Amino acid sequence: MITASYDYPKNEDLLKLVRFSAKDGTIWLAENRMLLLHAMAMSGLRKELINSVGIEHARRILTRMGFASGTRDAELARKIIGQRNPIDAFMVGPQLHMLEGSVRVSPIKLDVDMAVGRFYGEFLWENSWEAEAHTQEFGVQTDPVCWMLIGYASGYTTAFFGKFILFKEVECLGCNDSHCRIVGKPVDEWPDADKFTPYFESDSIISQLLELRTQVDVLRSSIADQYRLENLIGDSPAFKRAYDLVSKAASTNVTVLLTGETGVGKERFAHALHDLSLRKDGPFVAVNCAALPDDLVESELFGVEKGAFTGAHSTRPGKFERADGGTLFLDEIGELPLPAQAKLLRVLQEGELERLGDDRTRKINIRVVAATNVDLESAVRAGKFRSDLYYRLNVYPIGIPALRERSQDIPQLAAAMTTRFATLHSKRITGLSDKALQTLKRYQWPGNVRELENMIERGVILAANDGHIQVEDLFPNPEMGNGFDVAIGTTGSLETTAKTPADSLSDTFFNSRLSLDDVESMLLREAVSRANGNYAGAARMLGLTRPQLAYRLKKNAIADDMKDAGSANAGEGMDDNPPSS
Ligand SMILES: [Zn+2]
Q1: CA of 124 to the centre of ligand 1 (A)
Q2: What is the pLDDT of residue 304?
Q3: CA of 58 to the centre of ligand 1 (A)
């Protein structure tokens, strides 16, 4: 238990959590994005709210807004508790409330026993911004007016204890008292709680509808269809362009070629094409050509009659027959051996095939969707891919954008994935922290949507129950989340942060003893290789135009040997990744 003589722990640790990143236009309190607002403007908003929706609704909105801030700060407090005793840990809340400029808080009496759920808190409030704002606009009141502040105290304490603690103002500056005084107790210990709890609830019908909608969303996310369409979420122009081409192809029977980097979700686009088409009630059969052993490719695809070759112990239909009436998805088509390519061409042209060891011709009715992450045109030039098959497949090519080209879709994708993985792992996750989301949007995503998916699953597993996914839950290396230019130092004044990314980069450079030319040439090679030999992509990574990149490659005598390495890589450099889809 503490009384009025309580000394706050030093503020330094909390001040360090405030970071100003003026060049990004952001301010942060740990992982939460904050705003430095004009109290006058906030006061004006408060007034307009009261005048437009009436005092009861305005009070409810402001209380709930405060409650939400308090809840977020409790999450932060729980994280930085460290070695502190429970009382000092709890007092982080009042300290944050002061740091955020709302009010000066002094404890009068705090009696807490978390084990038995006992709470009694009495605090003195001075300099309440809200009381000042209210009296300036509306004059002295008969009822207390620090609604947002009361919301904050209740939200913070409730989240901290995991039990609804209701705070009430028993004195208020807004009622001509010399200060505000608040008392907080578990809600069931207030005889008149019913008078106050409605301010913490959103309008009841709307909240019931929202609750129902949440339930429907959760149910839906557990259904396979939803899972399949999840990666087809997005508003970015790059995504919409691809999706538009898919939906236009759906109503026809055209053979479609999906191109794009590993992990962009080609199989899901293929599946969407199937689902949108008239064949949607027929089978969707997916084959990864790279995963088939060379000697089994043809029997797997086209079927086999018993005894056709040693080891053909039974008669089996192939994937083409299994997809009859539906869609056959051939992933990594560039890996198909030449004899199988010839047979595929015939199926596409004639709509018929023969099983291995069988001379009967079978008619089949399928739509083929092929996909590749290699440049088929250069495979044709290298003699590894039939040109007639290439032209037959390339009738309707659709380029699936890399995730970094549609980074505006990341919040939606991440939210859908969070819901799905939270359901899968039986966790309650409130979402991603603002910082985590911003870090995801800045990341380059060499592994595309699949990498995002893996990262979100990791985040869901590591995040605290009822908490937000934080940067460190997503990235094993926390360095990736940094990039602030200014922070508040121990004295409360602004200081430049010690290590910027540029600092660490130059450390690495000077320690390496490489020459500047070596470094340039290394970066150029690395970019071209990460872009799978695609110069336009490599130029984007380096912040250059394509001609600028070409000039520098030439200057460093890289152009020619990289081109060869690029096409070799294109075929074999995917070993580390799972098959593309
Ligand atoms: Zn007050």
Answers
A1: 10
A2: 85
A3: 16
